[in-house]
Amino acid sequence: MQPAQEGWDAVEGGMATTAIVGKLRDGWRWLAANFIAERERWALWLPVFVGVGVGIYFWLTAEPPLWLGALSVALTMPAAVVAYLRQHGAMPALAVAAVALGFAAASFQAWWVAAPILAHKLTAVVVEGRVGAVDPQPEGTRVVLEPHHIDRLDGAPLPARVRVKLRRDEPSLLPGEWIKLRATLLPPPAPAMPGAYDFQRRAYFDRLGAVGYALGAPEKVTPPADASVSLWRHWVEAMRAAVTERIRAALPGPTGAIAAALVTGQTHAIPPADAGAFRDAGLAHILVIAGLHMGMVAAVVFFAVRAGLALIPRIALRYPTKKWAAAAALAVTFLYLLLSGATVSSRRAFVMTGLALLAVLVDRLSLSARAIAYAALVILLLTPEAAAGPSFQMSFAAVAGLIAFYEAMRGRIGQWHAGAGPVRRFVLYLLGIAFTTVISTLATMPFTI
């Protein structure tokens, strides 16, 4: 009986193995069929592979040579073009080329922004330079200087930018002005623990070579003879500082700080208790200029311009006022982008809003999924270091989750709204808010944790 039982066990084992292989084969066929069916959306994977290349760069423990990224692009790009023209192995070749492009972009950006970093602590040194940015805070003001002279660093290269915390508020300081102060400077601090917020990395890409605090009030000085002319960036920062100061003067206290954050993106002036209340209520995203703010500005300008032009029959009947309104909205949102400080979330929102407005200008429909893919691609190529920060990760995760959910539920939501009365529409509106909150929370949860 024993040999017969062993033979039967072997048959059963073979049948089980065959069933597993069959299920794996069916699963592979299902994946392949869905992959082929989604061929019109293969382009959406381009920023993902570029992000993989950026991630590989930041994963390395040693700085790779600059030529490595250039060589990888030089080898993979022609191969991808040849594969695409021959229609043989095009997708793998394009994926590898996108990874190489992301790696090269991160490597080039690290080389491009490289600047001297303070090697050791300097106590009570005189710093003279041009004000690059003014950041009001609940207690005092924080300024970013572009130093022209630092004591005891005459023979060493100066940091490109120095951030100094002033002991009291200095509303009269504007970007572009020259000041002199006595301060204690330190190198940018390392993370408090492994995996914690890496201020050194952000300081490197912001060209911030030292941080510190002032030991006295700053003194405005005359620019040196060899000083360069203030760039447009200083003009933008001066405008942001002036607008912030006017808002805080008209609305003193936390109200003005919150209002300034919604206009100029200056959130550091909000008292910690109020900022914590926003976080506890789940409304912290309102203080960050993103799609909500950019969309409101674009919508107000678009409809105001179009309604105004509609009041003039000679223009409304002869010219494409809709395109004129879209062009005006695009220009105003770009100015709002500059006024807000051009953060990662505001750049993402501007690209997506800009694509929708450009679609109006060229009489095409705007595809939301492609809009977010293009926005991610633009940010990854221009500022690849943003991929390592929570702002980029959470912003794109939330928007991608919402787009995916509502695209999948578009048909069913349309059926729910068909023939709905006022009460049912109000209930559906509340459900939409709830679904939006849940989806965005689930999408950002891995990064929040």
What does this structure look like?
This protein has 449 residues and is α+β, with helices and mostly antiparallel strands. It has four domains: 2-112, no CATH class; 122-239, OB fold (Dihydrolipoamide Acetyltransferase, E2P), CATH 2.40.50; 251-284, no CATH class; 285-448, no CATH class. The chain contains 16 helices and six strands. It has helices at residues 2-37, 46-59, 66-86, 90-112, 199-205, 232-250, 254-264, 272-280, 291-310, 313-316, 321-339, 344-361, 368-382, 390-408, 410-417, 422-448, and strands at 122-136, 141-150, 161-165, 178-186, 208-214, 219-220. It has a five-stranded mixed barrel with strand order 1-2-3-5-4. Helix 2 crosses helix 4 (90-112) and helix 9 runs parallel beside helix 12. The longest helix is centred in the first third of the chain and has 36 residues, at 2-37. It starts with a helix and ends with a helix.
Keywords:
449 residues; alpha+beta; OB fold (Dihydrolipoamide Acetyltransferase, E2P); 4 domains; five-stranded mixed beta barrel; globular
Count of distinct strands: 6
- Alpha plus pi helix count: 16
Helix content: 55-70%
Mean pLDDT: 84
What is the total domain count? 4
Rg over CA atoms: 28 Å
Order of helices and strands: HHHHEEEEHEEHHHHHHHHHHH
Structural class: alpha+beta
Q: How is the quaternary structure best described?
A: single chain
Shape: globular
Quote the beta fraction.
5-15%
Report the span from N to C terminus: 59 Å
Main β sheet profile: 5 strands, mixed, barrel
Order of strands, main sheet, comes to 1-2-3-5-4
**Unreliable runs, pLDDT <50, ≥5 residues?**
none
